Amino acid sequence: MNDNKNNLDDLNIIPIDQELDEEALAQQQLQEDLEDELALKIKLSSRRDERHLAFYLLYAIDRSDYELELEDAIDDFEQAFEGLIPRQSFAVIVVDGVIKQRELFDQQLVPHLKNWRLERIGCCTKLILHMAMWEFTQDNAIASIIINEAIELAKEFAEKDAYKFINGILDEMTKKKSEAV
Fold this sequence. Notes:
mainly alpha; N-utilizing Substance Protein B Homolog, Chain A
């Protein structure tokens, strides 16, 4: 009798229903793939990812003339990308440090700006310089890595040849610092 019931169930499925089920499963898989891709965008699996996130947060705060609080910028980012940013992440620590020391960093930049005024430096270039300067202040900072990462950020986010400018400024700062020691 059970065999007859299974046969009847098989008879009740017409090919179009089976195709619709397969299409629904394909749509569900596509949705899951998109969600996974979105989750990867805020996945902080490397220092480079953390620096990118720090840059995005700093840019948002800078564009608000520093009226946007760090916590609010994080909340906005989390809502937009449906993910969580660990508050103790390297990215958040960098942003907090840059915000607190940005005026000092501007003062430290001025002597290295040959034939340039601080006001002429593009927003993205200045933020990348500030991030690198903050990293220089950390224990166990490796100048070559910091400079390389700043150059890569500049190639991605700053003006066309800003990476050359950033390389020159940071290289000069590193040399002067090592001469002072």
